[in-house]
Amino acid sequence: MELYLYNTLSRKKELFEPINPPFAGMYVCGPTVYGDAHLGHARPAITFDLLFRYLQHLGYKVRYVRNITDVGHLENDADEGEDKIAKKARLERLEPMEVVQYFTNRYHDCMKKLNVLPPSIEPHASGHIIEQQEMVQQILDNGYAYESNGSIYFDVEKYNKQHTYGILSGRVLDDLMANTRQLEGQDEKRNPFDFALWKKASPYHIMRWPSKWSDGFPGWHLECSVMSSKYLGEKFDIHGGGMDLVFPHHECEIAQTVAAHGHHSVKYWLHNNMITINGQKMGKSLGNFITLDEFFEGSHKLLEQAYSPMTIRFFILQAHYRSTVDFSNEALVAASKGLQRLMEANKALQTLKASGNNSNDIDSIEKNCYAAMNDDLNSALLIAHLMEAVRIINAVYDGKEGISELQLNKLKNIFKIFVFDILGLTDESSNNHSEIIGSLVDMVQQMRMKAKAEKDYQTSDNLRNKLGEIGIEIKDRKDGYDWKLK
């Protein structure tokens, strides 16, 4: 089965051919843990969870590495300013690692609610200081970096003479030189677009480590080059992250890795697009983000109601990962209804009995589902094919069409593989809360049936209407009844 992925480096879809099959190595840039996870964090997590699940389904042994940035990420993604975690620690009067642990735990809680599988390895930047210092020395030894006042900077201009800086993003160094202004405090750099590999810590800087150059800390870009090569080798298959990381983060990664090892490390670069609000990127730096907990609780001023974790997951999967997703309450409500259709169809599917035959081509639905996933993880198209399966299930359930034993088993397999294993959706109505509601509905329904048996139709109708008033819809059937939350 041939899987094609869009490679940001080549700017085209390429056949996925791992370096060492059946092993597949994947590195994804994880969060900087200085605040609660928001919707912008959910998209890359769900995107690469989808890829992780699908590669495993195809039979690959996947080593999935997702880092935690807990040092060196300065304000405005620059080489100056305060470390984001250190700043949070100072404001809250906490130890920096206390901040890291707190928000890492909360991030993991959100990922679990979204049914995002944990990575194979989740290294922290602060746990790999020695390895980062070693790579800095390699780059210095190879002549692509220089020391200035105890800090080490990457020499972009020198690197560009022998390689290409801008190969991933399409930036041209001459244009960068013309459009980059010298910022205050950056006079120790030879060029303003040079980036830090190691920064000398100022007297007030909390997070620092000893080195031969100074007491300091690593630059933000360095950690990913170091940890990816440590756990996946100097050449590996997939590097992923949000599109906002293409430049400068991933561009700098490529440059420093080539400078250290003499060759490119990554075969396929994958980037998900952004979550926007009214066309503007959602993120902490812009102050327009909504945390995942606020979505789950409905506590943000922009939210008209609470949205469940699976609604958020389905909302993100409804769009292709390389397309922009614009937030709105209307879109989330529509996602909730679409998810409900899938889950109700799955419940109906489990109760179906083989009876006759079905004129629909079930084999084609399965084929189309695989074709969608093999076409650069087109989850939007996959969901459209699954909705065709929903139509068939509902037609059989309502007695309008028949289905053979073979076709029924095929539909059950399609739902198991694509809805639950690959898309990673779960039926939230199966939790304890729903079971309690179901028991109460059963009790009321027994009272209705008793009233009907006694020909007290007014009481029966009143009970159904009362359920409707509190948001529970009852549908009587020949062989029983169905209920759902409106």
Give an overview of the whole structure.
The chain is α/β, with parallel strands linked by helices and 486 residues long. The chain folds into 3 domains: 4-272, Rossmann fold (3-Layer(aba) Sandwich), CATH 3.40.50.620; 277-428, Isoleucyl-tRNA Synthetase, Domain 1 (Orthogonal Bundle); 432-485, no CATH class. It is built from 16 helices and 15 strands. The strands form 5 sheets. A 4-stranded parallel β-sheet has the order 4-3-9-10, with helices on both faces. A 4-stranded antiparallel β-sheet has the order 5-6-7-8, covered by helices on one side. Strand 14 (472-477) and strand 15 form a beta hairpin. The radius of gyration is 27 Å and the shape is elongated.
Short characterization:
This protein has 486 residues and is α/β, with parallel strands linked by helices. It has helices at residues 39-57, 84-92, 96-113, 129-141, 156-162, 173-179, 222-232, 246-261, 292-297, 309-317, 329-351, 362-374, 379-397, 405-422, 432-453, 457-469, and strands at residues 4-7, 12-15, 23-28, 61-66, 145-148, 151-154, 195-200, 216-218, 236-242, 266-272, 275-277, 280-281, 325-327, 472-477, 480-485.
